[in-house]
Structures are given as structure tokens and as C-alpha cells.
Specification:
Shape: globular
Oligomer: single chain
Number of helices: 12
Largest sheet: 4 strands, mixed
Number of domains: 2
Amino acid sequence: MEAHDLALESCSASEIKALQLVEHLGFFKTKYFLSECWRVLKPGGTLTIETPHIEKTFGIFLAGDRVVKEAALGWVYGSETPGMNHLYCFPKELLEELLAGSGFGIKSAGEFHFQPNRPALRFEAVKKDGERLTLNSALRRRLLDRGLADFACELAGAGLELVIKRLVEGCGDPAAELGQALYSAPAALEYFTLAEENEKHPSREAAACARLAGWNLQGRLAAEFADGLKKGLAAAAAFEAGLALGRGLASRALSETPAPYGPGPAAGAPAVFTLETASAWVFKSKFSRPAA
């Protein structure tokens, strides 16, 4: 099974060992992997992670001869055998931060040499409890199940991570949470649907997000952004114009007004609306049009 998408029951395992694994997943899949480990582990369960010690490997490379450098480079990048390349090597502090953010307390952290000139980190972490940790895991699971977790586009992945962070940390403020629909209406819909299911009563915000997703909100905002650029607006101003349109449509959706206004959705628009994804989409569109 995919490490970031575990086909295992929640709270079903006492221990998970991920030895020389996360460097093969990449940054965003590792965040989902840690979330899935938190979901699958029983309360107090242990996660063991071993991965290259990237800082020490850099030092070995700089100080070594040709043979040492070759071994260190292989430890950084992996091999060219399919599936054996390294997509992302995690500095120690970043891995500590990701473990904490995913709901793990670090029991021990150590270093060892996996092979000569190939230093590694080893963490033993324990699953902690918390409402936001539960929400983070449940929301990521829903995004995986709905095919909304985007690992093909780094900019879209980064934008979606920001939406998840704001939704998880902003629980209790429906207006602020609904505002995240401007960036990803489908992700906000899954968030409000989870809340609706837990509280066992209909949610106005879930209904509004369903309308916004049905209207292809992100495609409409991308069209507004592109139109703003055509009118001579700077990218930041065009993006704000898109957000302004989104706020109006969100208000319309919340009041159950049946029809949207503004431009129709742009073809091929990014699924997540951020300044970075919209700018990259417009730039790419300029070079993908057939010649006249």
C-alpha cells in the first residue's frame, strides 16, 4: 500500500517503523504519512523513523575525497533505480517540527551511521491526544479519500497545506473557516462536512461550500485573476480582485442565492487558488496555446 495512504483501521497498531522511508515520499506525502501514522496508532503507540542526517552528510561531502563524496551524494539523492531516488531529505529540526505538528511527542532522538559516510537520524515518537490532532488526521483522510490531496503540483500542494493549517487552527470561527473556501472550496466542504457529521445537525457553511464547489469557485477566481492581468493590474492586485469576487460569491452561497455572478470558470484553472498557482497557470497558458 502507499505509505501516505494506509489501508489500516484507526487505532489498530501499537508500533510503526519507518526505516529509510520518508526521504522517498517527498515533503507533502510525508505530512500525510505522519497523519496516517497518528490515525492508525493506538493511544500512546510508538512511531520509529530513520532517515539520512542531511546536515552531517553535507559536512562529510565537503571534507571527503572522490570516493567519500560519491557515497555521500548517493545518500543525499538515492539511486536511479525506480522508486529508490530520494525526493526530500529532512533536516533534523524540520522533522522534529513535523512530528510535533502531526501529534507526536519525541521520546528519543539519536544519530548513527547506516553505512560508512552515510550518517542517519533515528527518532522514537509517541502518539499524543488532542482535538486539533484528531481534526488534522480526519481532514487529511477525507482529502485522500476524495482525491483532493494534490501531489503532482508543488504550488497547489503548498496552497492546500495552508488551507488545512488555517482550518485546523481556526476551529470555532465559522466566518474565518468559510473564508478558506476562496482557496479551496472542496477542501473547506470536507472540513464543514466533518463538523456536520460530528455535531449531527445541518451546517449552513457546509451547504454554502457545496454551492461554491458546484459553481467551480476556483475556476471563476482564476478567470477573474486573468482578466485583471489583461486590464493591466499587477499580479497582487489581480489576485485581490479574485478574492473580492470570491467573498461576494461566498456571501451569495451562504444566503442560498441560486446563481453566481462574474466570469465563468476558466478552463484548466488550478484546483487551489493562490497567487502562486494562479500566476503559474497564466504563465503556462501563454506558452501552451497553439500557434496562430
